[in-house]
Amino acid sequence: MTTHTRSGTGSEMGSETGRAARRQALGRYGESLAARHLAEDGMVVLDHNWRCPAGEIDLVLRDGRVLVICEVKTRSSTACGSPLEAVTPTKVARLRRLAAHWLEAHPVRPPEIRIDMVGVLRPRRGPSQVEHVRGIG
Q1: Domain enclosing residue 109, as ranges
Q2: What is the pLDDT along the chain (137 residues), one digit of tens a residue?
């Protein structure tokens, strides 16, 4: 019988939990800011953090007659790249599949569907920066 022990102190584990909580809070902040920004641009938010077994869509919006599936990426710095660099072709393909699941679950039949991306940069100092890219895939 082998016994495994976890090295580290309680404070180290607590700090990991704290980092996770900060990341979640930053993500919620970015999604809220993105939703507000897109609504100010005339879009209508239909769904926020919609989940199904296949994954999650950050924002589902209507832009005129177009259904918009929107991925929001929030960062506190560009040390690991800009928020927009975080969306890969694999993620875009996943968003397409999630869009199909969302349509199956809702009585909406839009003439067009678009996948957008919003990058939010929330530096320690100064205002947040929001960048919206339409039609990423």
Answers
A1: 31-133
A2: 433 333 344 444 467 788 788 888 877 988 999 999 999 999 999 999 999 999 999 999 999 999 999 999 988 887 777 788 878 899 999 999 999 999 999 998 999 999 999 999 988 888 989 999 999 97
Nearest by Cα to 117 from 94, 89, 93, 83: 83
Q: In this structure, are residues 114 and 134 in contact, taking their beta carbons and an 8 Å threshold?
A: yes
CATH of residue 112: 3.40.1350.10
Is 18 inside any structural domain? Answer: no
Q: Does 111 map to a domain?
A: yes
Domain assignment of residue 50, yes or no: yes
Whole-structure pTM over 0.70, yes or no? yes
